[in-house]
Amino acid sequence: MSKIRFTAFSDLHHHPVWFKTDAPQRLTAIQERAVKDGSEFLIHMGDFCHHVPVAKELIKQYNEFKLPGFHVFGNHEFDLNSHEMALAGYGLECGYYYFDHNGFRFVIIDENYFSDFPGIYFHYSERNYFDHPQGRDWIPPEEVAWIKETVLSSPYPCILCSHATLEYEGGIQNRDEILEIIKASQKLPGRVMLCINGHYHRDNFNVIDNVAYLDLNSASFDWISNPHFFFPAEWYKEVEGLGNQIIFEKPLSATITLDTDGTIDIAGADGNFLLGISREMTDNPPSFRPCTPVILDRHVKLD
């Protein structure tokens, strides 16, 4: 039997002129908690920053911390960066990769491709995904084949990490191909135990067909389409997109402990809305999952 403990967080959104996230301070708090909780490494589920040149110090803070830090690409990594800039800025050779640690395999998925025509795939780069709203979040065939080989040949239980969700339709477009791989893995050493995603700024946990799915809340805020004006007036002069934010007072992260016997323990984070301003106070409809400033604790034992 093996155990592993790591820290997961998502959607830090370092973009100072547009978002009030205080990303360096939030990252420091997440890192300090990781050390205190005895995590062996950290992993973010995407949307760490929007512009590599502006975020160089933040990336350095993450990459050179005393605990290793792993990257998952989100769509906003490619707002002001080309695909090549984002890879170089994070120190990656490829957006999808795996690493083995203490008897577990972490499979990092890059679903940041769009496909307007069957068989033709392009990676997000410099906001081009806004030009293709109906064709986003595809995993191209060569990556699907790589995921299949990486999981089914693994000597260790697997954790799949992506920005968009595999839990339900509306996330990764060709999720059925990945679900087939997950199903095929269940009686192998490389069985998929857990899938983690970010992107939606929501907290949720589900177990489907003996596989756990964690929808990881944002470390910083929720985005709303219709702006509000509840924050102090002077803040709006400093941050362009402030009215579109519902900000979490504390940085949210999860300490996750896995055991090869199938046990999953998630130590979440309690929090509040900054200045008490919630989504329900704004002129925005309810969302698919409620906007909450927390990550709940969970404990399950898979069969």
Describe, in short, the structure shown.
By secondary structure, the protein is of the alpha/beta class. The protein has helices at 23-37, 56-63, 83-90, 141-152, 175-185, 233-238, and strands at 3-9, 42-44, 69-71, 97-101, 104-108, 113-117, 120-123, 158-162, 192-197, 204-208, 211-215, 221-223, 245-247, 254-259, 263-267, 298-301.
Structural summary, described in words:
The longest helix is centred in the N-terminal third of the chain and has 15 residues, at 23-37. The model has no long low-confidence stretch (mean pLDDT 96). This protein has 303 residues and is α/β, with parallel strands linked by helices. Strand 4 (97-101) and strand 5 (104-108) form a beta hairpin. Helix 4 (141-152) packs parallel to helix 5. It has a 6-stranded mixed beta sheet, covered by helices on one side. It has a 6-stranded mixed beta sheet with strand order 4-5-8-9-11-10, covered by helices on one side. The protein has helices spanning 23-37, 56-63, 83-90, 141-152, 175-185, 233-238, and strands at 3-9, 42-44, 69-71, 97-101, 104-108, 113-117, 120-123, 158-162, 192-197, 204-208, 211-215, 221-223, 245-247, 254-259, 263-267, 298-301. It is 20% helix and 24% strand.
Pairing-aware structural class of the strands and helices? alpha/beta
Cross-sheet strand order for the largest sheet? 3-2-1-14-15-16
State which percent range the strand residues make up.
15-25%
Counting DSSP E segments of at least 2 residues, the number of strands comes to: 16
Specify Rg, calculated over alpha carbons.
19 Å
Q: Characterize the biggest β-sheet.
A: 6 strands, mixed
Provide mean pLDDT, rounded: 96
pLDDT < 50 stretches: none
Which range best describes the helical content: under 10%, 10-25%, 25-40%, 40-55%, 55-70% or over 70%?
10-25%
Oligomer: single chain
Give the H and E element order: EHEHEHEEEEHEHEEEEHEEEE
Summed up, the helix count is 6
End-to-end C-alpha gap: 15 Å
Name the overall outline: globular
